[in-house]
TrEMBL record:
Superkingdom, natural source: Eukaryota
Identification of the protein by name: Reverse transcriptase domain-containing protein
SUPFAM superfamilies with a match to the protein in the record: DNA/RNA polymerases
PROSITE patterns hit by this protein: RT_POL
Lineage summary: Eukaryota, Viridiplantae, Streptophyta, Embryophyta, Tracheophyta
Domain Reverse transcriptase positions: 1-184
Organism this protein belongs to: Linum trigynum
Length: 297
């Protein structure tokens, strides 16, 4: 499993390649002229001692923050998807099957914007074919793979992982990778998949704990920030009881003690804290109910 990291994704897109993609997809000429005019009219300036020192025109890349840029970038990345599909159909590499018995539902790669994962066997020829495909993709689109941040993940028994990693020129690991924040291959009921989210919450609490915040300010942070941090994970997994208890423990400690370990007693029962404000509570999310609601959407 190869997880390439695309370097400066938006800033490296080749305009000529993009315009050819739009033509190949048969976009209307008028619409293509709008896109071309929007991109080619952009001006860039370099700040010297805080002041703009002249302007020059851009020759590649997509504008950051432009609502049109993500869609255009997806069209460019779709080229890689089509190239991998052609290589797979030619029998040059193969992915894995969702159902090994029926050999249906083969997965060769996953793409979401610039977050890419490519699957193949531990085979010298397959790895070389994937590398050649990536090199061709780079030369056409202008995008570059940052090998220092790219990782080859080993699944199952592989005799010499460093041999295949050397072909890509990247590092390798046996740790389960993450894709879109989701730990691939992890057991759904394993509390360990929540460790990164819990650690992220604790790191925020450590930063806030050094500040002299009032109860009101801490309550706002509990409801607006801490309460929303598990949203993505809650929409995917049923949180174990131990995880919910750890999250609520962190919230309680921050609300009443500012994140510090002390013996200061809570001023309000935690059940009342989780009650809606309209019913006399503090409006802090009931994490179990929040988890159930996210899973049922």
């Amino acid at each position: 499993m190869f997880k390439p990291d695309i370097e400066k994704a938006f800033d490296s897109v080749n305009w000529e390649c993009l315009f050819k993609i739009l033509s190949g997809l048969e976009f209307l000429e008028k619409w293509k002229s709008w896109v071309k005019g929007s991109m080619c009219s952009s001006m860039i300036s370099v700040l010297v001692n805080g002041e703009a020192n002249g302007y020059f025109r851009a020759s590649k890349g997509l504008r950051q923050g432009d609502p049109l840029s993500p869609g255009l970038f997806v069209l460019v990345m779709d080229v890689l998807s089509m190239m991998l599909k052609v290589v797979r159909e030619a029998g040059k590499f193969k992915g894995f099957y969702m159902n090994e018995d029926s050999k249906n539902g083969e997965v060769t790669h996953l793409l979401f914007a610039d977050d890419t994962v490519i699957f193949c066997d531990a085979n010298h020829d397959q790895v070389l074919n994937i590398l050649a495909t990536i090199v061709c993709f780079q030369s056409m689109t202008g995008l570059r793979i940052n090998l220092d941040k790219s990782v080859m993940y080993i699944v199952g028994d592989v005799a010499d992982p460093s041999f295949y990693a050397a072909i890509f020129g990247c590092k390798w690991s046996r740790q389960p990778p993450k894709y879109l924040g989701f730990p691939l291959g992890a057991k759904l009921n394993d509390p360990a998949i929540w460790d990164s989210m819990i650690n992220k919450m604790k790191s925020k609490l450590n930063g806030w704990g050094s500040r002299h915040l009032s109860y009101g300010a801490r309550l706002v942070l509990c409801t607006a920030v801490l309460g929303s941090m598990p949203t993505y994970m809650f929409s995917l997994f049923k949180a174990p009881v131990s995880v919910l208890q750890e999250l609520e423990r962190s919230q309680r400690r921050f609300l009443w003690n500012g994140g510090r370990d002390s013996n200061r007693r809570a001023l309000v029962d935690w059940k009342l804290c989780k009650t809606e404000k309209s019913r006399g509570g503090l409006g802090i999310h009931d994490l179990k109910a929040f988890n159930d609601a996210m899973l049922s959407k």
